[in-house]
Specification:
The complex is a heterodimer of chains A (about 240) and B (about 350). With about 240 residues, chain A is an all-alpha fold. Chain A has ten helices and two strands; from the N terminus they run H-H-E-H-H-H-H-H-H-H-H-E. Chain A has a single domain, classed as Up-down Bundle (Fumarate Reductase Cytochrome B subunit). With about 350 residues, chain B is α/β, with parallel strands linked by helices. In chain B, the strands form three sheets. A five-stranded parallel β-sheet of chain B has the order 2-1-3-6-7, sandwiched between helices. A two-stranded antiparallel sheet of chain B has the order 4-5. The chains are: A mainly alpha (about 240), B alpha/beta (about 350).
């Protein structure tokens, strides 16, 4: 059986034989990084949904109090997902030390590097349709790098600190959670404020997820490298061989 | 230090039997969450220790702390004021007035240097050199600093002295300032609440007299024995919270059944106080038991933490009143629209680029 090829398709996608073979791919994200990404993504979804329902509970259930444990159940799922999120973050931090150098990118910000800032604005211009073609990056591009650093790295730390401080209110003042995170109440003496900041943190992460998913799809189509499949296989593939 | 009668001497002189005295000690121990054996120690302290001289000064306040204090049932405020402590100065309840009263203050400061307790109800206004609160012809700030200089310890009665309360609420025109920010060189015990529970107030005094030291304080300077748990932790309506059974509207079926007041803005989950265990008016009731949510009156800045009837705090920095959800959903909506527009523009750009390649 032969595959029928439309000559028109060939005309569009034809590349010189030499170049086609020179397409390169680099192994960027090691298995633990990929695994963390997807577990973390799932945890964020669960935490956001349950967290929202803790702030604005579902309509009151009827019947006997002893037969229902809806709010308790929602809070249990939230706390469980929070442990997954927090332990995952610590494991990811550990991998930054033992993994390849791409694993460290999330935890460092080349703030004093002029070239990095120039490229960040270059990437910004690409998103504002002012640049015809983006640069190629093996890791995160500088714009993505900055957003990930502030929202995922610092944002996760903020959510873990505020979240566990709130959790410690329930576990009590003689719990290890209170010993480890109770100092947050020195910054937010009335923990109602802690609730509000934790809640706003959720919305910042939700905004990030929206932009992140959109950017990943757009870059996968329009940039010069693979994005989505890279977080599945770990391989970064480049569509052209130009610098 | 001049010789002072002990608590025991005073109550025996008042004709109270030893049996009643021991009952009182057991009750005092129980109210502070101490083991039964401690009742003996309390009795011993009452029999042997001289009464502590206390100066009670009043800054910007509404006297609700005093009103609460005199309603203490266990121990009776009468016992505390007349027997356990030597309340040498309190312009609200003392018989003396004017120069005579101020002389009593000076006398105690001179005679018991470093051995008296300064109880502060209300707080000092610092704006306009403190001219918003004049006591005995001088700004209260001066009286506070003067009386605190030689005090053993300072008790901040109520939310005014502890946090600032209503007079320190935004925009705080008089710059009302909590005591611990003005008196920085003395141990300050915060007993917040608007007002604090009477038994909590007398309990703190009893503890200090009994053990001769300050009660153990938490990170924010509140006695752990009364402020280490939230209203929510010991609320009798907590099972309804866990079950997801809430009052949705005042006077609905849930309200009649005594469901959780979380959705009606109850601040029990963020309020550290003993209301749900000690309760008020000789243990009769407390706000939630009466069907109204906790307003969080013992918490820092509770006036500025949004409506008493909203679960989510309004954030006023955005000009309009909006809570975290309204802000978040608006931002998500804007971001969603921006993404859609950007995606459309990207598609156009790509289509044009594609055409360019074909030509």
């Amino acid at each position: 059986m032969t595959v029928q090829t439309d000559p028109k398709d060939l005309a569009v996608h034809e590349t010189p034989p030499g170049e086609a073979h020179a397409r390169t791919s680099v192994y960027v994200y090691e298995a633990p990084v990929r695994l963390w990404h997807w577990i973390n993504a799932l945890a964020i979804v669960v935490l956001s949904v349950t967290g929202y329902l803790i702030g604005s509970p579902l309509h009151s259930t009827g019947g006997s109090g002893t037969d229902n444990f809806l709010m308790g159940g929602i809070r249990f799922v939230h706390f469980t997902a929070a442990y997954v999120f927090a332990i995952g973050f610590l494991a990811r931090l550990y991998w930054a030390f033992v993994g390849n150098h791409h694993a460290r990118q999330l935890f460092t910000l080349p703030f004093w590097n002029g070239a990095w800032w120039r490229e960040l604005f270059g990437e910004l211009k690409w998103y504002l349709f002012l640049e015809k073609e983006p640069k190629k990056y093996v890791g995160h591009n500088p714009l993505a790098h900055a957003v990930m650093f502030f929202v995922i790295t610092l944002g996760s730390i903020f959510m873990i600190l505020t979240g566990f401080a709130l959790y410690a209110e329930g576990t009590g003042h003689d719990s290890w959670q209170w010993a480890a995170f109770g100092w947050m109440t020195a910054i937010f003496p009335n923990t109602q404020g802690l609730h509000t900041w934790h809640h706003l943190g959720m919305w910042v992460i939700i905004l990030f997820v929206m932009v992140h998913v959109y950017a990943a799809v757009r870059e996968d189509i329009m940039s010069r490298q693979s994005i989505i499949s890279t977080m599945i296989s770990g391989e970064r593939m480049f569509k052209d061989n130009r610098p | 230090m001049a010789a002072l009668e002990t608590f025991y001497d005073v109550i025996r002189r008042q004709g109270i039997s030893r049996r009643s005295f021991l009952k009182f000690c057991s009750l005092a121990a129980a109210s502070m969450g101490l083991p039964p054996a401690m009742a003996g120690r309390i009795a011993h302290a009452m029999e042997t220790k001289p009464r502590i001289p206390v100066l009670w000064v009043h800054g910007l306040e509404c006297t609700c702390c005093s009103e609460s204090f005199i309603r203490s049932a266990h121990p009776l405020a009468k016992d505390v004021i007349l027997s356990m402590i030597s309340l040498d100065y309190d312009p609200v309840i003392m018989a003396a007035a004017g120069d005579q009263a101020e002389a009593a203050l000076e006398d105690t400061i001179q005679r018991y240097k470093g051995n008296y307790i300064l109880a502060v109800e209300g707080n000092p206004p610092l704006n306009e050199d403190g001219m918003f609160c004049i006591v005995g012809g001088k700004p209260f700030t001066e009286q506070l600093k003067h009386a605190a200089k030689d005090a053993m310890a300072v008790i901040s009665w109520g939310s005014c002295a502890s946090w600032g309360c209503v007079q320190a609420a935004h925009p705080n025109p008089t710059q009302a300032t909590p005591v611990h920010k003005v008196i920085t060189d003395k141990p300050v015990i915060k007993v917040p609440g608007c007002p604090p529970i009477a038994e909590v107030m007398t309990g703190v005094v009893t503890y200090m007299l009994t053990f001769g030291r300050l009660p153990e304080l938490d990170r924010q300077g509140r006695p752990k024995m009364f402020y280490s748990q939230r209203i929510h932790d010991k609320c009798y309506r907590r099972p309804h919270f866990d079950a997801g059974q809430f009052v949705e509207e005042w006077d609905d079926e849930g309200a009649r059944k005594g469901y959780c007041l979380y959705k009606m803005g109850c601040k029990g989950p963020t309020t550290y106080n003993a209301c749900s265990t000690t309760r008020w008016n000789e243990g009769v009731s407390f706000p939630i038991q009466s069907g109204h949510g906790c307003i969080g009156c013992s918490e820092d800045g509770f006036w500025d933490k949004g409506s008493f009837y909203e679960r989510l705090t309004d954030i006023k920095q955005f000009g309009i009143e909006a809570n975290a959800d309204k802000i978040g959903m608006t931002a998500a909506g804007v971001a969603g629209a921006a993404i859609a527009t950007h995606a459309a523009l990207s598609a156009v750009k790509r289509a044009r680029a594609g055409k360019g390649e074909n030509q």
